[in-house]
Amino acid sequence: xNNIVTLDEFIIKRQKDFQYSSGELTGLLRDIGVAAKxxxxxxNRAGLxxxxxxxxxxxxxxxxxxxxxxxxxEKMIECLQNSGECCGIVSEENENIIVFPKMEGxxxxxxxxxxxxxxxxxxxxxxxxxxxxGIYRRKTKYDTxxxxxxxxxxxxxxxxxGYVSFGTSTILVYTTGKGVNGFTLDPSIGEFCLSxxxxxxxDKGNYYSVNQGYYLKFDVEMRxxxxxxxDLNLRLRYIGSMVSDIHRILFQGGIYLYPKTRKYxxxxxxxxYECNPMSFIVEQAGGKAxxxxxxxxxxxxxxxxxxxxxxxxGSPLMVDEMVEFVSRxxxxxxx
Length: 335
Ligand code: P6P
Description:
The protein has 2 domains: 7-196, 2-Layer Sandwich (Fructose-1,6-Bisphosphatase, Chain A, domain 1), CATH 3.30.540.10; 207-334, D-Maltodextrin-Binding Protein, domain 2, CATH 3.40.190.80. It has 8 helices and 17 strands. The chain has helices at residues 7-14, 24-44, 67-83, 148-151, 220-231, 242-252, 271-284, 316-334; strands spanning 54-58, 64-66, 86-91, 98-99, 110-118, 129-137, 160-166, 170-175, 180-186, 191-196, 207-209, 235-236, 255-258, 269-270, 288-290, 308-309, 311-314. A hairpin with a 3-residue loop joins β7 (160-166) and β8 (170-175). 6-O-phosphono-alpha-D-fructofuranose (P6P) is lined by residues 118-119, 211, 240-242, 245, 268-269.
């Protein structure tokens, strides 16, 4: 009995979860799966093909663009445009929104926000990278031009979100608001196969994930909390890819922090296409995600497509303890 459930089969089976579902979201998710397989092929042979190294340009956030960034961005955009179910994209790699022309006169209602290759600085040293995506439904009339304002939706308005972790294996994890499921790519059949059903994050764990190198640049209450993690003998794991660090935490428990620093006064990570999709996934798995002001990430107003946010995300008991710790510290020592 072949008990393999492919991503396509799973998405189609779950389509009935949605009232009035017309198959458009199903088609869009399946095309994202195709794009992930295409990107995976190049990630796996990046060392062999002359696509290593820097592309020589900078992205919307002023970061050096790696060639694989460009490739992943181009392939994701191509697949989403060809799906015919997506009317436009915001990508980390593009300053402005990308609006797709109608296909066969059809008004598409879904928009995608995208970090095509998260942690790209890891590429040249063979360390894990990832892709992050979020799917929104247009709120404006479908036959009107798509504008930046269409994308300025809170994370709580996400219809779906997911990530692909290109690591020792390639795993696609996604949610449509009805739980979180993971699919591992089986290269022998070229399919993502259901490998982690109904993922639930442990209430707490032994890992904390933060760039310790910025310790002296964090606010004092954040430094004291990081000291507290060390006092608890938690293990520090931080590899420079939010997807990889949060993937570990999703399965083994823990907390990931990117607080604001003097360089990134609002935090480094992008709210629209990094923090919101990852927060939707972690909350759906029973975890929590807040910013440095202790505000729920998914409730934050999105005021510009590349705006940044601080983020503390992970196991619910650990995020709660962090809130209690910082609040107490702020009251006792900062007032
Ligand atoms: P730093 C990658 O650029 C990223 O957006 C996240 O994936 C990662 O966790 C973080 O930034 C790394 O930033 O400043 O610690 O190198």
